[in-house]
Specification:
This is Iron-sulfur cluster transfer protein NUBPL. The chain is an alpha/beta fold. It has eleven helices and ten strands. The protein is elongated.
């Protein structure tokens, strides 16, 4: 690509070349043949500022979802740590704590679970503040898609769903890991912040740390960490046992300089409520387990309000 030619008594030619290939040597020999005193500078140079601007124009711009004030992603580094259960109960708790409209979007294209947890088996009605890939495929059907198809589905679920009216929060239940869906969301929309869910287990913490680093790279603030399955309390004798370890998430929160939003115990009623489509914050709203989610929701609300004042 020819960048500039300056005329007059002296001629200057700047050419942008791909790495490798023999075109550089061909150009130098050509100048040597046709110029009296050729002076070729073949050093590697950085792209000029205006050229960088031209390249930036082709990058996707983040969009604001109509009728949605804040987008909160609930993520985890690995599966099986209770991320979807946390997302469902957090969305319901935010609606109660802030007395506001809250939407819930299941972004796990390959393994949607929100329809079962929210007892939603039919396609959404026009006034229903929830959306999932699970509404579009049969519950037992396997979704076998390549990356571009996943990114297209993410875009349609996010931007082609009629959210509202006037949702204060849209909670996204993310798939585990740091793949196409996470990257697509970071490029497509403005995200208020991320919540990372992990158990205290060392292996889970390693993956959670990767998730935090990923959000840092795409400039999405981490609102805090949630320690799920923090402790098991025997329903018969009341003895508490830290099955997956103790204080691991708290230590990681200190290392990452983020808040520990709360701890949720390993409890049978949480699992049964999710399986029945009656989340714990609805079925047993006065229980200690439900209060854990309400406390987390209150802290999230405070963090979002603080971010808005910056």
């Amino acid at each position: 690509m020819m960048a500039s030619v300056v005329g007059g008594s002296q001629c200057s030619l700047s050419v942008l070349l791909r790495r490798g290939g023999g075109l550089r040597q061909v150009l130098v020999r050509g100048f040597s043949t046709h110029a009296d005193k050729p002076k070729a500078d073949c050093s590697k140079t950085k792209l000029a500022d205006h050229q960088k601007e031209v390249m930036k124009r082709g990058l996707p711009r983040r969009s604001k979802i109509p009728n949605v004030s804040n987008v909160i992603v609930v993520a985890s580094g690995k599966g099986g740590v209770g991320k979807s259960t946390t997302a469902v109960n957090l969305a319901l708790a935010l609606a109660e704590v802030d007395n506001c409209g809250v939407g819930l979007l299941d972004m796990d294209v390959f393994g949607p679970s929100i329809p079962r947890m929210m007892n939603l088996s039919a396609p959404p009605e026009i006034d229903q503040s929830g959306m999932s890939m699970g509404f579009l495929v049969e519950e037992k059907a396997a979704v076998v898609w390549r990356g571009p198809m996943v990114m297209s589905a993410v875009q349609r679920l996010l931007l082609h769903t009629a959210w509202g009216p006037d949702l204060k929060y849209l909670v996204l239940d993310m798939p585990p890991g740091t793949g196409d869906t996470q990257l697509s969301i970071s490029q497509l929309i403005d995200v208020t912040g991320a919540i990372i869910v992990s158990t205290p287990q060392d292996i889970a913490l390693l993956d959670a740390r990767r998730g935090a680093e990923m959000f840092s790279k795409v400039h999405i603030p981490v609102l805090g960490l949630v320690e799920n399955m923090s402790v098991f309390c025997c329903p018969k004798c009341g003895h508490q046992e830290h099955i997956f370890g103790q204080l691991g998430v708290q230590r990681m929160a200190e290392e990452l300089d983020v808040d520990l939003l709360g701890e949720v115990p390993l409890n049978l009623s949480i699992r049964e409520g999710a399986d029945r489509g009656r989340p714990i914050v609805i079925s047993e709203c006065s229980s200690p387990q439900a209060r854990s989610y309400f406390n987390i929701a209150a802290k999230v609300s405070q963090k979002v309000a603080h971010l808005k004042t910056k």
